[in-house]
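Annotated sample (chain length 104).
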Amino acid sequence: MQATKIQSFYKETLNPYLNFHRPCGFATETVDEKGKIKKKYEPYMTTFEKFQSLSKPEQFLKKGVTMESLKEVEQKRSDTEYAKLVQEKKAALFRSFSKLGILT
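Output written by the structure step:
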């Protein structure tokens, strides 16, 4: 029963946040004169922004998914609003566990 709640939180709240609203650095590797690989994490953008920056990103979408439908998901809330929502939903999830005596 708890696994179902956790899976629901991931699918409905956390995964959309990670894909559409949480910025992350994308590494650019360079090799110095000694052969050592150095990584520079720029630019910072969300996973969806990076996906959009690919040439012809539509070719990687599952059947029935469109770029327009993904843009709608991204634009429903701001990054800050979605981060707050994730924290609220996570707190509610953990409160539900404490009511059962799982987390005390």
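Annotation: The beta strands are 23-31, 37-46.
Annotation: The chain is about 55% helix and 20% strand.
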